[in-house]
Design a protein that fits this description.
Keywords: Kelch repeat, Repeat. With 145 residues, this protein is mostly beta strands. The chain contains no helices and 16 strands. β5 and β6 form a beta hairpin.
């Protein structure tokens, strides 16, 4: 990798490249992102997130973009979410989750929605709540406990 990092995410894109984003190193929280090409064994930098974050999740959506949600940034827990477009290497802010959460899970469902569940919330409280992200509308809805 071009940047030392821990607490980052890694996702395999449709083109086979591995997308690594966020994390932390001696310089602090990272917003940077990189692509690993397994065919050539090389790393290249790509667009940076709007919010540096750790302990977040990353999911590949049906259209090939990557949803990064939640996490922690500069010692505050966040509910913000961003979309990475692999075709352009750019990020766009999308709707924020209803709850602040980090150390949560995220799964892309067969119907294209993303289920985010659990994690820690405000004040490091354990969460049993879940939310659904709709990529068509960029909105989140509560999915129960």
């Amino acid at each position: 990798m071009n940047a030392q990092r821990e607490f980052h995410t890694a996702s395999t894109l449709a083109n086979g490249k591995v997308f690594v984003t966020g994390g932390y190193n001696a310089g602090g929280f990272l917003s940077s992102a990189e692509l690993y090409n397994p065919s050539t064994g090389t790393w290249t930098t790509t667009g940076s997130m709007n919010t540096a974050r750790i302990y977040d999740t990353a999911c590949i959506l049906a259209n090939g973009s990557v949803l990064v949600a939640g996490g922690q940034s500069s010692s505050s827990n966040v509910n913000s979410a961003e979309l990475y477009n692999p075709s352009t290497g750019t990020w766009a802010i999308t709707g924020s989750m209803n709850a602040v959460r980090y150390y949560h899970t995220a799964t892309t469902l067969a119907n294209g929605l993303v289920l985010v569940a659990g994690g820690y919330g405000t004040g490091s409280s354990y969460l049993n709540s879940a939310e659904l992200y709709n990529p068509s509308t960029g909105t989140w809805t509560i999915a129960g406990n």
